[in-house]
TrEMBL record, chain B:
UniProt KW Metal-binding keyword: no
Record GO terms (molecular function): ATP binding
PROSITE patterns: ABC_TRANSPORTER_1 (PS00211), ABC_TRANSPORTER_2 (PS50893)
Domain ABC transporter: 2-232
Taxon lineage: Bacteria, Bacillati, Bacillota, Clostridia, Eubacteriales
InterPro entries from the UniProt entry: AAA+_ATPase (IPR003593), ABC_branched_ATPase_LivF/BraG (IPR030660), ABC_transporter-like_ATP-bd (IPR003439), ABC_transporter-like_CS (IPR017871), BCAA_Transport_ATP-bd_LivF (IPR052156), P-loop_NTPase (IPR027417)
Entries under Pfam families matching the protein: ABC_tran
Protein name: ABC transporter ATP-binding protein
Keywords: Amino-acid transport, ATP-binding, Nucleotide-binding, Transport
UniProt record similarity statement: Belongs to the ABC transporter superfamily.
UniProt key word Disulfide bond: no
Species of origin: Caproiciproducens faecalis
PANTHER family (alphabetical): HIGH-AFFINITY BRANCHED-CHAIN AMINO ACID TRANSPORT ATP-BINDING PROTEIN LIVF
CDD domains hit by this protein: ABC_TM1139_LivF_branched
Automatic annotation (TrEMBL), chain C:
Lineage: Bacteria, Bacillati, Bacillota, Clostridia, Eubacteriales
Protein origin, superkingdom: Bacteria
SUPFAM superfamilies per UniProt: P-loop containing nucleoside triphosphate hydrolases
SMART domains noted in UniProt: AAA
Keyword entries, A-Z: ATP-binding, Nucleotide-binding, Transport
InterPro entries: AAA+_ATPase, ABC_AA/LPS_Transport, ABC_transporter-like_ATP-bd, BCA_ABC_TP_C, P-loop_NTPase
Start and end residues of each ABC transporter domain: 18-266
Protein name per the record: ABC transporter ATP-binding protein
One Pfam family hit: BCA_ABC_TP_C
Gene3D superfamilies reported in the protein's UniProt record: P-loop containing nucleotide triphosphate hydrolases
UniProtKB/TrEMBL annotation, chain D:
Compartment(s) of residence: Cell membrane
A Pfam entry, by short name: BPD_transp_2
Name of the protein this chain belongs to: Branched-chain amino acid ABC transporter permease
Keyword flag Metal-binding: no
Signal sequence residues: none
UniProt source species: Caproiciproducens faecalis
Keyword Magnesium: no
Transmembrane portions of the chain: 9-27, 33-53, 60-81, 101-123, 135-154, 174-192, 222-243, 255-288, 308-326
Record keywords: Cell membrane, Membrane, Transmembrane, Transmembrane helix
Highest classification ranks of the organism: Bacteria, Bacillati, Bacillota, Clostridia, Eubacteriales
TrEMBL record, chain E:
Signal peptide stretch: none
Family membership noted in the UniProt record: Belongs to the binding-protein-dependent transport system permease family. LivHM subfamily.
Residue stretches spanning the membrane: 6-27, 39-57, 97-117, 143-162, 183-211, 217-238, 245-265, 271-290
Lineage: Bacteria, Bacillati, Bacillota, Clostridia, Eubacteriales
Organism: Caproiciproducens faecalis
Coiled-coil portions: none
Source organism, top-level taxon: Bacteria
Name of the protein in question: Branched-chain amino acid ABC transporter permease
């Protein structure tokens, strides 16, 4: 079918009266869900801020097909063919890292929305991001677990997922430090991406009798882990990372993920900034029957940061934008005030804790870690 | 019963049959002889619908069956004993016979007995997988399988290929016997001596064309045929 | 079974190319070849005949290493080759053709021949790929020999044709030529005249004789065409149900009642 | 005869010059996007050739290419990674001290990658190549998955799921990728047309007959497998260097399907077919991206055009090619000068009568 | 390891094993007749999951009706795929058919992503089969009790059809020689279509139960089960139905037990599946009870 195009969004006009921002995200393949959520946020941002410096901003989306080689060609295409001034993306740190060299070499700045791997920005002057990093998230959850009284934790990690492994490592480190007990992590069990059967791992976890289970990983597998855990009669709370903060996690997990607790970037029920409120409102209007994913807000912020940098640089020149991005300070985004450090990472020191209640992630707490 | 008119068949660009016409009268035995690659098998394969002819007509019992699907043609009462046996190796001997009667709706247990009587060897091996039979055993099975469909016209493509002299003789006996039972036979043979002896009519094929036709006995005595196909040696040796 | 004196003598007999002792092959319950004793001497043409399913091809398959005998031994020039792999046996000078022609169908006639010379090439894969002098020389020699053989077998004018496009008779010839290309001492032919008309069979008979002499071969063949067998064989073995029911000269075989009964049949339909 | 030979040599020489000039031009004047795609084409050609050697020419139905690639890719990644960056990259578990201090420059690393992949091919080939047909396929596929799982789990060597990033960029220069591709192309062609190549083809055609011709099946199958593994390893090394990052997920067994697709599309047993198909597939995927972009006609956005659509089209096109050219674009034939000249010769002779015909019909 | 834990894992293993077996049977069946590794089988399975999702969660069909709807629709899809992608290649080389299968697999995955988005959906619960019951100390999902029963029923029906009916005989004949099967008067297209229909229908039955145990539906959900069940089929001897069942159980049990008994090796779980596969093939090159094919020379 066809729908009438909003004059504000997808125009195909080119020329000097537009500034192009490229987006590369996995829109097909294994990571399509995450990519889609980010693009939603970016589109909203584009709708709310369609212009900068009096020029129209055009968002060019390229699918990286959840594949590294495709990620690099997608970015090369954005740079060379579409001549974008800046780039947003990508969900999945490995795709961002594959594109890192390209943006650096071509001097086009990129802002990652949710790529939490420390190496994305490290040593790359052209890569920034608006999310906090894996180590931070792991530490946050360890603090939360400790605060809520847990003395013994079990870890279930998706061993073939760099993100999950990262979170698990930092969780363990922090939790052991907090409890002062080297054996406070009673067991660590592994599974692989795409596994669907976790009975054996969960039996071990059950036998170890932890107070809490930290199970960072892809939301699809995690939902199944929790379902199967409940079936086995494991009742202790599950903690996880931001990847669970997506509608499908609760819809797949159903009643069994009730009580699952995560750290995330954004809470749509209680946005901390005005920008956040604005975003939530627009999102609700655009997608009335969707629960918002936190990464959508990050996508929104990535766009915003770039717009602000273009304004500050007063130019659509890529290098100028990069320099302006590096100086980003106290830019109000949906997820909070953003200030980039020397690595290009945001100085975020607090994370939002959410818990599944009645089939929805709801705000629980905010944990602040002093650095 | 079967009438072939000006049949042309080609594989890709190569013309294998270049305008053949002949008839197979009801209840007769007609044989096609000719060198390897003359187009004999191709003719049979075309009749049974495995190859589509380029031009020409195949009339069976006054019905044009040119270009019809194999199933339909076979349903009309034609069957083929294919070149190279082609029995179903993963089916038992017994099942191979049963599948020969695939289209029949009546009771065919008598016919199985009949085939077993014709080829006692098959009865011994009834539960063996056909793939492990020796060449000759497989040929017997192929003939037996064809008989199971109770055909009006049975086309045999070199049934004596690789068979022991005793069995060859047996096969020709059987050919005569089933012909007596009213089955029309179109026979391809390398063993021209024997073939022409049982045949009412023979056609000699050479590179896709009929070169000579005539009564079996006539051809047997034809000098040209003798020179090209029958060999100079007394063929009695083969029998002794 | 203890080897009797005769077989001990045979072991020493230099003339004996191939000898089998109690060669037996069982498939499940079926004894396809039962205690077969063969003795094939140099420059002889020996035939193996018998009804269908007698175990002739199976015997060939054991001799050429395709099957390993369930029991018994096979000696080539006194050397035990039982259970050796087919390629090794070929390299020892035994070549064969197959009952159902097995050519390299999609390759040219020339390639079919030259492939049979590959094993005699001593250059390794690197020098062959990089066309080092040794390999180039070997290749040249292989080519020349192949051309020569094709010429000799009357296949020279179809040398670039794809093997499967040849008429059947020529395919049979090609298969024999290919076997000869391995420079065998012992040539095994499995029903070479199958699918040939009497005239062609006669031609083949002459050609086998000729080849045997030209290439100084020992030939061991399976055939159902009795005119061919009787004409060229020095000795004949007759198998039935895996058992040897007769051996001897063609004349002896033709008059062996067991053989006549089991295989040849009595000619009751004398001249029409 | 001699004339055509001379003509062919001249044509080949001219082609070589043209190719070199094109590479020079592309490398220096074309934008990074196109260069990147061309590089991918070259690398896919290498791996396609390696797979065609095993599957197309030797007739071994192997699905292990992703595994060989992974080995080559990781070898290059591990050994070319600058020493001072290793602790940063291996931040979770330090690199195994046995290799932490070893650094190789690109070429030795690339060759080492090929050698290790070839050795792995030997190790796996020894048991597995005795299997036939589909059993061989699943066993080799399994082997490539085992490699991937090892890469995930041997964290101190491979950095596990985190993968290795910041691999120095050596292959994003067309001289490298095309240079290696051309060398491998020539080597493959030489091998195929040598006595060994004929033996491989004989095994493909009829292994029992090949064995009866004195060809040691097992030895030759292993040879083909090892050479194929070596080439794939080298291709994998280039791939790693081009992408700058490797992780185990990249080498999921479905990666092999891409190359299977390339060789079947080009023609199993055709070197030139593989080259053509590599370019078609790689460039085709890029060209089709247009279908992912929203299309607006007269102010209406056609909602058919959205991300994912290009992949649907791609799979459909693929099906169409497979269905209508079931032997691939080239079948088992090669694009030779003789064929090209014959083709044009025919065109000419066809054209002549056609022009007169044209007058009458139009 | 306590007895309780062992029993729990055993129950798990049997449940997983019978699911593998159920899907492997469909795989093996298509292979047995067409000698084609139907790489698209896992994706047909995935489509069946979407059919179930739409049937139950969207159209709210009653469970029995939904089951019929899904099985029939999936069988139809299988037959459609056969018609469009395999039948035109009847006389083509095997590799082309394989690539066509891979193409179908790509197409289905991409189409599903395009139509239903890459985001997973929740699989609906039928008859409360997702809930658990306790048998002594072992707690087990109800569906796990149903699977073996369904498996035995399906397998018996299938064995009967293949070995005892005319259609089955025709299937076996077609599997070896299309041409001569035609000459026997067999409509081979019909027979092959029927085979695909049955195989795909089994995938649908499989997915209804699988989804109950692993309740998520996504475009790539068929890849892993597809591969695992293929392994199971090969372990047992591909083309052999009993073999597929045996292979499914062996694979399911070993996977679960490995993780249970050798925790640190969990990461290598899939590797073990393949090592097991390769080892079995080395000892028995055509699988545990695969047909032994000594080629008659
Ligand atoms: N499938 C095919 N593709 C291409 N050419 C073929 C095919 N089948 C047969 N031919 C060619 O068609 C011609 C006639 O073949 P056909 O099999 O009909 O001969 P024939 O008289 O039966 O010979 P034979 O005595 O060897 O069986 C031959 O030249 C053969 O090479
Ligand atoms: N691989 C096998 N598996 C099982 N049985 C076999 C196998 N090969 C041969 N046989 C059996 O062994 C017996 C001898 O077969 P063989 O092929 O040796 O016969 P033959 O003498 O060559 O007959 P023909 O003249 O018909 O070719 C036959 O009964 C056959 O069924
Ligand atoms: Mg013929
Ligand atoms: Mg035989």
């Amino acid at each position: 079918g066809c729908k009438k195009v909003d004059t504000a969004s997808g125009s195909t006009g080119t020329g000097s009266d537009t500034i192009k921002i490229g987006v590369f995200e996995p829109l097909t393949g294994a990571n399509a869900a995450g990519g889609e959520a980010e693009v939603e946020g970016i589109k909203i941002a584009n709708k709310l801020y369609p212009e900068v410096l009096g020029k129209k901003v055009e968002v060019v989306v390229a699918d990286n097909k959840s594949d590294k080689a495709q990620a690099t060609t997608a970015v090369a295409r954005l740079i060379e063919k579409d001549k974008v001034s800046a780039i947003i993306g990508s969900w999945g740190s490995s795709f961002s890292m594959a594109a890192g060299d390209l943006v650096k070499k071509n001097k086009v700045p990129a802002v990652g929305a949710s790529c939490t791997n420390p190496l994305v920005t490290k040593g790359n002057d052209y890569y920034f991001r608006v999310c906090y990093l894996d180590p931070f998230q792991g530490t946050v959850m360890a603090n939360y677990a400790f605060k809520s009284g847990a003395k013994k934790a079990a870890i279930i990690q998706e061993v073939s997922n760099d993100y999950a492994v990262g979170l698990a490592t930092y969780f363990k480190e922090a939790f052991v430090k907090l409890t002062g007990d080297p054996n406070s992590v009673v067991t660590t069990v592994n599974y692989n991406t795409n596994d669907q059967e976790f009975g054996a791992q969960l039996s071990t976890v059950k036998a170890a009798n932890p107070d809490v289970i930290f199970a960072p990983g892809n939301f699809t597998e995690s939902a199944l882990v929790m379902k199967q855990a409940r079936q086995l009669g494991i009742t202790v709370p599950f903690l996880g990372g931001d990847t669970w903060d997506i509608d499908e996690f609760t819809s797949v997990g159903g009643a069994d993920v009730e009580g699952a607790t995560i750290s995330t970037f954004f809470d749509d029920s209680a946005p901390v900034t005005d920008e956040g409120k604005k975003f939530v409102e627009a999102y609700k209007k655009e997608y009335p029957d969707k629960n918002m994913a936190a990464v959508s807000a990050l996508g929104y912020d990535a766009y915003l940061v770039i717009i602000k940098a273009i304004e500050a640089a007063n130019s659509s020149d890529s290098t100028a934008i990069r320099d302006a991005l590096a100086k980003t300070k106290d830019v109000e985004g949906a997820t909070g005030k953003l200030t980039f450090n020397a690595d290009g990472d945001p100085d975020k020191d607090s994370a939002i804790i959410k818990e599944v209640k009645n089939g929805k992630f709801t705000y629980k707490d905010t944990v602040t870690i002093s650095k | 019963m079967l009438k072939i008119e000006n049949l042309c068949v080609s594989y890709g660009g190569i013309e294998a049959v270049k305008g053949i016409s002949f008839e197979v009268p009801d209840k007769s035995i007609v044989t096609l002889i000719g060198a390897n690659g003359a187009g004999k098998s191709t003719t049979l394969r075309t009749v049974v619908g495995l190859v589509k002819p380029q031009s020409g007509k195949i009339i069976y019992n006054d019905k044009d069956i040119t270009g019809k699907s194999s199933e339909e043609i076979v349903r009309n009462g034609i069957t083929l004993v294919p070149e190279g046996r082609r029995i179903f190796p993963n089916l038992t001997v017994y099942e191979n016979l049963k599948i020969g009667a695939y289209m029949r709706k009546d009771d065919y247990s008598e016919d199985i007995k009949w085939v077993y009587d014709l080829f006692p060897r098959l009865k011994e091996r009834s539960w063996q997988f056909a793939g492990t039979l020796s060449g000759g055993e497989q040929q017997m099975l192929a003939v037996g399988r064809a008989l199971m469909s109770k055909p009006e016209l049975i086309m045999m493509d070199e049934p004596s290929l690789g068979l022991a002299p005793l069995v060859v003789k047996g096969i020709f006996e059987i050919i005569k016997e089933i012909n007596k039972l009213g089955v029309t036979i179109l026979l391809i043979e390398q063993n021209a001596n024997l073939a022409l002896r049982v045949a009412d009519q023979g056609h000699v094929l050479e590179t896709g064309r009929i070169k000579l036709s005539g009564k079996g006995q006539e051809l047997l005595e034809n000098a040209e045929v003798k020179a090209a196909y029958l060999g100079n040696k007394k063929h009695e040796l083969a029998q002794q | 079974m203890t080897p009797d004196n005769k077989s001990i003598n045979e072991t020493i007999d230099k003339n004996i190319v191939l000898r089998t002792e109690n060669m037996t092959m069982q498939f499940g319950g079926v004894v396809a070849v039962d205690n077969l004793h063969l003795t094939i001497r140099e420059h002889q043409i020996v035939a193996l005949i018998g009804p269908n399913g007698a175990g002739k091809t199976t015997a060939f398959n054991m001799i050429t290493g395709v099957y390993t005998p369930s029991s018994g031994k096979i000696f080539l020039h006194g050397e035990d080759i039982t259970g050796m792999s087919p390629d090794k046996i070929t390299r020892k000078g035994v070549a064969r053709t197959f009952q159902n022609i097995r050519l390299f169908k999609d390759l040219s006639v020339f390639d079919n021949i030259i492939i049979a010379k590959h094993f005699s090439m001593h250059s390794n894969i690197f020098s062959a790929t990089l066309r080092l002098p040794g390999a180039v020389r070997a290749e040249k020699k292989m080519r020349e020999e192949s051309e020569e053989l094709l010429e000799r077998m009357g296949l020279a004018d179809v040398k670039d044709a794809v093997a499967s496009s040849l008429p059947y008779g020529q395919q049979r010839h090609l298969e024999i030529a290919r076997a000869l290309a391995t420079k065998p001492e012992l040539l095994l032919l499995d029903e070479p005249a199958a699918g040939m008309n009497p005239q062609e069979t006669e031609d083949l008979t002459a050609s086998i004789k000729q080849i045997q002499q030209d290439f100084n071969l020992t030939v061991f063949l399976i055939e159902h065409h009795m005119d061919l067998v009787m004409e060229i064989s020095d000795r004949i073995y007759v198998l039935d149900f895996g058992q040897t029911i007769g051996k001897g000269t063609p004349a002896e075989i033709q008059n062996n009642p067991r053989v006549v009964e089991a295989y040849l049949g009595v000619d009751d339909d004398a001249e029409n | 005869m001699n004339n055509t030979k001379k003509r062919n040599i001249i044509c080949t020489a001219i082609l070589a010059v043209i190719v070199l000039a094109l590479i020079y031009f592309a490398n220096n004047y074309l934008d990074a996007y196109i260069v990147r795609i061309l590089n991918l084409c070259a690398i896919y050609t290498i791996i396609g050739l390696s797979m065609n050697l095993i599957n197309g020419f030797t007739g071994l139905f192997s699905l292990g290419q992703a595994g060989f690639m992974a080995i080559g890719a990781y070898t290059v990644a591990i050994f070319t990674l600058p020493l001072d960056m290793r602790s940063t990259i291996f931040y979770m578990e330090p690199m195994n001290p046995a290799i932490a201090g070893i650094h190789l420059s690109f070429v030795p690393a690339l060759l080492l990658g090929g050698v290790i992949a070839g050795f792995a091919a030997f190790l796996i080939g020894a048991p597995v190549l005795r299997l036939r047909g589909d059993y061989l396929a699943i066993a080799t596929l399994g082997f490539s998955e085992i490699i991937r799982i090892l890469l995930t789990n041997l964290q101190s060597i491979t950095n596990g799921a985190l993968g290795i990033n910041k691999i120095p960029d050596n292959a994003n220069n067309m001289w490298w990728s095309f240079g290696v591709a051309i060398v491998i192309l020539i080597l493959t062609a030489l091998l195929i047309n040598s006595s060994y190549g004929r033996a491989f083809k004989a095994i493909r055609e009829d292994d029992i007959a090949a064995e009866a011709m004195g060809i040691n099946l097992f030895k030759h199958k292993v040879m083909s497998f090892v050479v194929g593994g070596f080439f794939a390893g080298v291709g994998g090394g280039l791939y790693a260097s081009l992408l700058g990052t490797v992780d185990p997920k990249q080498f999921y067994f479905t990666l092999t399907y891409n190359f299977l697709l390339i060789i079947v599309l080009g023609g199993m047993g055709s070197i030139s077919g593989t080259v053509i198909a590599s370019f078609i597939v790689t460039c085709g995927l890029e060209l089709l991206r247009t279908f992912d972009e929203p299309l607006t006609v007269a102010g209406y956005e056609i909602s058919l055009f959205r991300p994912g659509f290009s992949m649907v089209i791609f799979s459909l096109l693929l099906m169409i090619i497979v269905l209508f050219y079931s032997k691939g674009l080239m079948g088992r034939t090669e694009l030779t000068w003789d064929r090209i000249f014959n083709f044009f010769g025919k065109m000419k002779s066809k054209k002549a009568p056609k022009s007169t015909e044209g007058g009458s019909t139009k | 390891m306590t007895l309780e834990l062992f029993l729990q894992n055993l129950a798990n293993g049997i449940a997983v094993g019978s699911l593998y077996a159920l899907i492997a049977v469909g795989y093996t069946m298509v292979y047995g007749i067409l000698r084609l590794i139907n790489f698209a089988h896992g994706d047909i399975f995935m489509m069946a999951a979407y059919f179930t999702f739409f049937g139950v969660a969207v159209f709210h069909l009653p469970w029995y009706f939904a089951c019929i709807f899904v099985v029939v629709l999936t069988a139809g899809l299988g037959m459609l795929i056969e018609r469009a992608a395999y039948r035109p290649l009847r006389d083509a080389p095997k590799d082309s058919v394989l690539v066509s299968a891979i193409g179908v697999s790509f197409l289905l995955e991409n189409l599903a992503t395009y139509l239903f988005s890459g985001k997973p959906k929740a699989f609906p619960d039928f008859l409360g089969l997702m809930s658990t019951v306790s048998l002594g100390t072992v707690s087990i999902q109800k569906v796990a009790l149903v699977v073996p029963v369904v498996l035995i029923v399906c397998m018996s029906i299938l064995l009967f059809v293949i070995n005892k009916t005319k259609l089955g005989m025709a299937m076996r004949a077609v599997s070896k020689d299309y041409e001569i099967a035609r000459v026997m008067g067999i409509n081979i297209n019909l027979v092959i279509a029927a085979t695909f229909g049955i195989g795909s229908g089994l995938a649908a039955v499989g997915v209804i139960l699988w989804g109950m145990k692993y309740p998520q539906v996504s475009p790539l959900m068929g890849v892993m089960p597809g591969l695992k069940c293929f392994i199971a089929a090969v372990i047992g001897g591909i083309g052999n139905i009993k073999g597929a069942v045996l292979g499914g159980f062996i694979l399911g049990l070993i996977e679960v037990m490995l993780v249970a008994f050798f925790q640190p090796l969990t990461g290598y779980r899939d590797a073990f599946a393949f090592i097991l596969l390769i080892l079995i093939l080395l000892v028995k090159p055509t699988g545990l009870i695969g047909e032994k094919t000594t080629e008659k020379v």
